[in-house]
Fold:
Amino acid sequence: MIDKLEFLLALAREQHFGRAAETCGVTQQTLSAGVKSLEDRFGVRLVQRGSRFQGFTPEGERVLAWSRRIVGDTRAMQDDVAALRRGLSGHLRIAAVPTALPMVAALTTPYRARYPNVRFSVLSTTSEEIFSLIDNLEADAGLTYLDNEPLGRVTSVPLYTEHYQLLTAAGGPYDDRASVTWAELARIPLCLLTPNMQNRRIIDQQLRAAGGEPAPTLESNSMVVLMTHVRTLQWASVMPAILADALGPTEGLRAIPIVEPDLRHAIGLVAPRRDPATPMVTALLTIARSVARTLDGDDPAPSVLHGSGTG
Structure:
């Protein structure tokens, strides 16, 4: 039964019978037969079939939701028993919004020091995709915004407060200023994250509230791309203070706080709300709470990047 529920999860992820079968390590015929066996057992059609996968029926969506819970609990049970036998080990998958990537090392470094047999994968993605990955059991936890858009059914640990700076070349129109307003910012050509990123939605909303219209001259889903363009001193960008700190000192570059308003949003760790949680996720939540206690919510970057938040 568990294997057949895994087939449903793979089909939901891949939206294609062949690719789903490949990820499960079985033939397409085996996967189709497994899904058909579930349909026979429940007495309802779960998948809309044609020449290709066309989605789940309403009954299939309900079974899919239960499958995620059952498979997740089964994996948690297996990990729990394995941890009792040989200690904490395995693969911990963390998804993070691009602006929170500098924070990841503050969690993974003390984690590895305590549990050297755990390996990590870190994926940079959108806040919406983080929750989809967690729901589909493709990520164990995420780093994302906690207070701007709905979170859903997760456990969350606030880590720090994101606030914003204008990164621009020295000698520009605001070079002698201690701060710049969002209204003034609306008149500057910027390079920004793509609109599917929550950071970009926050910036766009604030620029419009200040009477401007976002008109970036360059967009990217990578903070590295934005950083490298800012380093040329030919581009300006709006970045969280933690990222401005990660960028490091650059001759000719100025980081100017943005005010009116001094916009702030909470960033934190999110994980599936499951009792009991998997041992690896439980350990990550414990480390996150320890790190959070060491951070200054108004200016977390020095603690995060220079190692005082290691728990």
Summary: Confidence is low (pLDDT under 50) at residues 297-311. DSSP finds twelve helices and twelve strands in the chain. The first helix runs from residue 2 to 14.
